[in-house]
Amino acid sequence: MIAYLLFATFVGLLFHGIHRKVIARVQGRPGPPIWQEILHTLKFSFKETWIPKTASQTLFVAVVFVAIGIWSAALYLLLSGGSLLLLFGIYLLHKIVEHGMGLSSGSPYGKFGAIRSVISAASELPLLVTVVAIYFFTRSLSIADIAAYQQVHGPLLIVALPAAAAMYLVILSKMHYGPFSIIEAKEIVSGNMTEHFGVWRAGLEVGFALKTYVLLYAFVLLFIGQLPLALTLLLMLLVLVSLSFVCAVTPMLSPYDTVTVQSLVTGALVVYIIVLGVVMG
Question: What is the pLDDT of residue 244?
Fold first, then answer.
């Protein structure tokens, strides 16, 4: 498991670099090398580190370990075929990281990011659509059972496309430089990450790399099925590139526009679930 965590961290950081590279290329810029995020994490690991005087020391440090811990647990759940509800419950715990990072620092920029993390909670509503739709088709919320169902009946991506779109929107909301990345908007410097530097920032980069790996892996596993690792990574990369393209051509929305768009999309998806429930009994 430790070896796989290191592998997932490496791939997640590499995906972050590819994400930046694709955005730059679409926008007509050369962009950084794809290994830049790996270099950044290594650089932060050896930088001088301390805790700001204005920070709540316990919370300032704890959110780093919580970020790594929850996404390590989420990865274990995926690999062991555990409960989908528990996986998404862990996903919701990430809000503690986003909110705690901003509030713990004592920085006004961090506090703005923390407030926006609460506003952005609307982006998590489509998770309900994903869970309910998957259950309607598979009659199970076990990740192992969902993968087994797709081996017999084919990918859920085909028959439950709106549910896949709902999870795609959830992943998009957690991508850097995306239309819903309001907690790290440049008018508030780096938002809730403004005051985390040195080894604390390196730890957060590791946690976020695991987050990206888990979300992309979960999308492939839940809507396409269990595949050999090489093919899974290829599909994860294709999903990532599509997300990067959306981020490149879409401006960052204001906090209130973000909530409006996500709420409208969620409303449409709820209608889909109601219709699906009526049709499937």
Answer: 96
Quick check: pTM over 0.85?
yes
Distances (CA, A) of 135 to 82, 140, 216, 266, 271: 14, 5, 20, 18, 16
Return d(Cα 20, Cα 16) in angstroms, integer: 6
What percent of the residues of the chain are helix, what percent strand, and what percent coil, each to the nearest 5?
80, 0, 20
Exposure b/e, 129-157, CB count within 10 A at least 16 = b: bbbbbbebbbeebebeebbbbbeeeeebb
For residue 27, what pLDDT is reported? 93
pLDDT for 143 equals 94
Residue 181 contacts residue 252 (beta carbons within 8 Å):
yes
Is the pLDDT reported for residue 120 higher than 70? no
Q: Which residues contact 199 (CB under 8 A, 6 or more apart)?
A: 44, 45, 47, 49
| Residue 27: Cβ within 10 Å count | 11
Q: Which residue has the tokens 């490496």?
A: 10
Q: What is the dihedral of CA 37, 63, 200, 195, to 10 degrees?
A: 90
Average pLDDT, the chain: 85
